[in-house]
Amino acid sequence: MAYVITSPCIDEQAADCLDSCPVDCIEKGEDQYLIDPSICIDCGACEAVCPVDAIFYEEDVPEEEESFIAKAKAYFDA
């Protein structure tokens, strides 16, 4: 499991999460920041600093935002 960045990031992209991540698993994608699920250590530091509440633990991602799980996996598998 990992943390996932969802749709509110597309409009905000504040990048507070970048500085908080101890393992540098967050990258800027085409339209939002994404968390590499193979590197994420599930510490939750990014979730705590997100100003738009766009970050969720994978199991807690709202149903309407679940496509962002696949989006992150596809981005890092490419």
Automatic annotation (TrEMBL):
Annotated SUPFAM superfamilies: 4Fe-4S ferredoxins
All residue ranges annotated as the 4Fe-4S ferredoxin-type domain in the record: 31-60
GO MF, one annotated term: 4 iron, 4 sulfur cluster binding
Cofactor requirements of the protein: [3Fe-4S] cluster; [4Fe-4S] cluster
A Pfam family this chain is assigned to: Fer4
PANTHER family for this protein: FERREDOXIN, OXIDOREDUCTASE
Role according to the record: Ferredoxins are iron-sulfur proteins that transfer electrons in a wide variety of metabolic reactions.
Protein name: Ferredoxin
Organism: Cytobacillus kochii
Taxonomic classification: Bacteria, Bacillati, Bacillota, Bacilli, Bacillales
